[in-house]
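Issue: copy button drops trailing tokens. Both records pasted manually instead:
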Amino acid sequence: MDAPWPVVRRLGWVRTSELGLGAIFVAAGVVKAAGFPFMVELFASLGFGQWLRYVTALVELTGGALLLSGRLQYLAALALAVIMVGATDASVVVFDRSPIPPFLTLIALLVVAWMRRPSGESARRQ
């Protein structure tokens, strides 16, 4: 019997998750960096100024690109998880929205980071 999702089976669920998360974060980073009006307003309502939008865009673009490229996934997922902690907090405290979407993204990033964590084997050999 053929697998219902042959691409997922061939790539593995962790790599498939990295590709999906990477695409999402690259798109989100582009929207923030391009200065779409709704993003400018959203970050203005946070009260930190637009510098935070640029920093967030840089982290999202870099982290997303690293997840897509398959390099440094552990560090990329951790950096993006920090962003999602802030997004989850802002959803509740500032925007009065459901924290479920950013929280689930945070959990997915932490799972990727856990699965891609350094094993310590190379450190013990040195």
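Record 2 (pasted manually too):
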Amino acid sequence: MPETAKLFARLLKTRWFVRAPIPLYKAGLGWLMGDRFVMIEHLGRSSGEPRFVVVEVIERDTNVIRVASGFGPKAQWYRNLTANGVAYLSTGRARRVPAHVSLLSPEDGDAVLERYAAAHPEAWEQLSAAMRELAGGKDPVIPVVEFTPPAP
């Protein structure tokens, strides 16, 4: 198990690997990734330029998508959302849908992660081990972000 976590952590730090799905979403082929992933378009906090990241959806409710920042609060996409709260989501056949950004409290985020772990125990085992590896063997801080349609 530790070797698998190290490999997974190494892949998550490999730029070409994590960016590979972005052209699929931009071409309208996000549905090929299934409903477990979403592309988030956000704005760079300094540049104001569009940035893109594809992450796993850890929970989905009616008009709500929740994702976790596996790299913790230092992930660039998370920092950008924290700074400006601008997000457009592409998932399945939906493209560039504006979304309201809510950064969940640690308690609410932990509850979401517990539900994810219960629903996907094998995926959680791999993912949590990789996140611990990325955090240097410590218990990682895993912020959860909730996306909803913008208020009318």
